Recover the amino acids of this structure.
C-alpha cells in the first residue's frame, strides 16, 4: 500500500513563512480531513502539494512511492498516482469530458509503460459507463465540453469522474476556497464515499465543518499556525462543531506564534 508522507514541511510565500513544520501521512484506503481556521495555511499546503511555483519549500520533504514529490512536475505527480483536484484546465474549447478523461488515462498508462498503446475505445466506454453509473451521473455529461458553462456542481462532478476513472492511489481535495454550495458539497461527498473503501486514500482540506457531515473521515487533523497541532478520529470534527476553534487557539497560540 502506498502512502503520502509529509515531513517537517516549511513553505514561504514572498519570503513570509506560512507552513512551519507540517507532518502528515496519508495512507491508501483511508480518509484524512484537515480543518483549521482561516489563514492557517490549508490552501498553502494544497498548492504546495500541487507544485504551484509561488510556494517556496524552504525545509522538509514529501515522499510518495519512493519519489521525492517536491522534485516532480505537477503532471509527473499526477502520473505517479497523486490526484490534485484543482489541477484542471479552466475550459478547453472543443474537448469533451470523455476526450479529456481518455487523454488523461492514456497519459497515466504511458507513464507506467512507455509502450502502452492506450485504452481502446470500447474498453474506455465500458469504464466510463461503469464509473458514471457508480457515481449516479447522467451519461450525457461525458459529451459536454469540459468546463464550458459548467456550474460549480458540474465542475465538481467532472473532477470526481476524473478521480474515478484515473484511479489515483491518493487524492487531495481542497474544498477551502471554492465557495461550494450544498449540492456541490454533496457531489464531492457522495463521490468520495463511492470511491473509498477500495484502494483510494483521500486528503480532504476543508474549512467547512458541514462537508464532514457527508464524508466520514477516518482521521481528522487540526491545523493552526502552519502546523498540524491535533489529530484524532471523527469525534474531533464533532468537537470542533460544538466548541469552535477557541480551545485550540488557547492551547497552541503561544507555542505556534
Ligand atoms: P487557509 O487556506 O488556511 O485559509 P492560506 O494558506 O490561504 O490559509 O493562507 C495562509 C497565510 O498565507 C495567510 O496569512 C495568507 O494571508 C497568506 N497568503 C496566502 N496566499 C498568499 C499570497 N499569494 N501572498 C502572500 N501571502 C499569502
Ligand atoms: Mg484557503
Amino acid at each position: 500500500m502506498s502512502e503520502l508522507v509529509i515531513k517537517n514541511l516549511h513553505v514561504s510565500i514572498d519570503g513570509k513563512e506560512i507552513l512551519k513544520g507540517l507532518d502528515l501521512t496519508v495512507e491508501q484506503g483511508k480518509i484524512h480531513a484537515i480543518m483549521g481556521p482561516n489563514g492557517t495555511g490549508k490552501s498553502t499546503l494544497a498548492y504546495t502539494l500541487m507544485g504551484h511555483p509561488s510556494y517556496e519549500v524552504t525545509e522538509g520533504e514529501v515522499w510518495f512511492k519512493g519519489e521525492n514529490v517536491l522534485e516532480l512536475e505537477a503532471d509527473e505527480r499526477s502520473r505517479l498516482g497523486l490526484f490534485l483536484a484543482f489541477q484542471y484546465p479552466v475550459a478547453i474549447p472543443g474537448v469533451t469530458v470523455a476526450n479529456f478523461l481518455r487523454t488523461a488515462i492514456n497519459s497515466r498508462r504511458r507513464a507506467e509503460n512507455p509502450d502502452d498503446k492506450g485504452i481502446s475505445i470500447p474498453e474506455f466506454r465500458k469504464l466510463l459507463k461503469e464509473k458514471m453509473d457508480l457515481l449516479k451521473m447522467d451519461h450525457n455529461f461525458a459529451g459536454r465540453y469540459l468546463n464550458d458553462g459548467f456550474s460549480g456542481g458540474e465542475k465538481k462532478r467532472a473532477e470526481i469522474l476524473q478521480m474515478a476513472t484515473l484511479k489515483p492511489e491518493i487524492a487531495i481535495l481542497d474544498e477551502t476556497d471554492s465557495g461550494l454550495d450544498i449540492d456541490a458539497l454533496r457531489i464531492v461527498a457522495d463521490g468520495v464515499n463511492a470511491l473509498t473503501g477500495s484502494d483510494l486514500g483521500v486528503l480532504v482540506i476543508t474549512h467547512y465543518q458541514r462537508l464532514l457531515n457527508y464524508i466520514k473521515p477516518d482521521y481528522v487533523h487540526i491545523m493552526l499556525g502552519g502546523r498540524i497541532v491535533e489529530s484524532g478520529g471523527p469525534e474531533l470534527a464533532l468537537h470542533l462543531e460544538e466548541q469552535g476553534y477557541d480551545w485550540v487557539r488557547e492551547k497552541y497560540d503561544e507555542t505556534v506564534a
User: Anything to note?
Assistant: The first strand starts at residue 3 and ends at 13. Residues 42-43, 176-177 surround magnesium ion (ligand 2) (CB under 6 Å). The mean pLDDT is 88. The first helix runs from residue 42 to 50.
